[in-house]
Amino acid sequence: MRGGGAGRRGGEEAALLLSALTVLGCAAGLAVAVTRHGPVTAYGRLLRADALSVWMLLAVGAVATLALAAGPRGPDHDAAAARRYDVLVHALLATLSLAVLAANLGVVWIAIEATTILTAFLVGHRRTRACVEAAWKYMVICSAGIALALLGTVLLYYAARQAGIPEALALDWPTLAGRAGRLDPAVTRLGTGLVVLGFGAKAGLAPLHAWLPDTYGQAPAPVSALMSGVLSSVAFAGLLRYKVIADTALGPAWSRALLTGTALLTLALAAALLIGQRDYRRMLAYSSMEHMSLIALGAAVGTPLAASAMLLHMLGHGLAKAVAFCAAGHLERLRATTRTGRVRGLLAEAPVLGAALALAVLALLGLPPFGLFAAELGLVRAGFAAGMGWAVGGALVLLLTAFAALGTLTARMLLGAPPAPRPPARLGVRAALPLLAGLLLCAALGVSTGPLTGLLASAAEIAGGR
């Protein structure tokens, strides 16, 4: 019976991995089509694949494949719970794909709200008190944020109808982007401000960020990797669509001021909270806030170089954070704790796992040759060139603080002797190879974007409103 159960569980995990690979394969096919022929539409313009949506779909497929292949095996103590977990992950991949491919802003909102519901069940999957509390906290705060985004979307619909845009096209993003100059400035300003608050909550930006450390700390490791690696970026990509409309209707100054303030506030909070952190999964959660604030700062700068750096940062961060959270999941199983003070000598006890975690943290610190180094360098150059040196300088000071805190905490876990003499723990080829692949991909992005160069340039033009 155990063998049959293990076989069935293995088949279900293979099905999850196949779903992620399907998303990745579809994204690769669409990348070729979009690069050669321009945007592709389907179902009466309900779905629209342009360079930006395809770039995000590539991120979803790549990070999901890595997280589901490298993360600790899903729950197998209860067959019904395991099936429920699998169904929720399949549905999450579907809604993430819909959120980036939908042309209608109302459908984008529905898809992102659906991810909130699905991930809330995944966070509380183990049904411990801490998991359930984290799930409720996540649900309440993100639902409040999404409600603000809904109100902002309704206001934008109202402005579109007042501008004479037909009802069927009043939330169609290409139509709104093309006619944004007709929208009422006051209504558009209020609507986009609410959307920044609402979708910013899903992306982990201040002030509605309090759910993030508890949620990432309690969710299964592959789910934390998906939430940190792509869900936050997908929500921010939805925000970018509204930003394009606002920049045309109001000029770039409004969104630049709003996003710069949000980014610096989030980065300051992340740096301060990292200093006193004593839980390595929460440490990675605050690192996510740090990186999402840099992505928001790139969007605020808004130049082609900044937009390219921002999109490269999304993909590089997703890969590095997937490796980090999956390694943290294996570490939690090995040591039965998430407290940094109880983990010492990891490199000596589990060399492969320790090396994977060390390299993932180095990538998150923005060191070469990883992709985040190239992205952050591009962001700094773009910021100074755009006359935002004061904001970039402030961000660099805060980054140094976060760098020191994250590096110190990780070094304490990795170095030294284990607390008790133990034989070396082996990670296993099944988990080690995907972790290595993720690190290699992240490093490759720091050297060259290769066949993705054209797609990245086109996606940057869209994100910059050009």
From TrEMBL:
The entry's localization annotation reads: Cell membrane; Membrane
| GO MF, one annotated term | oxidoreductase activity
Q: Where is the signal peptide?
A: none
Q: Which domain of life is it from?
A: Bacteria
Q: How does it sit in the membrane?
A: Multi-pass membrane protein
Principal localization? membrane
| Protein known as | Hydrogenase
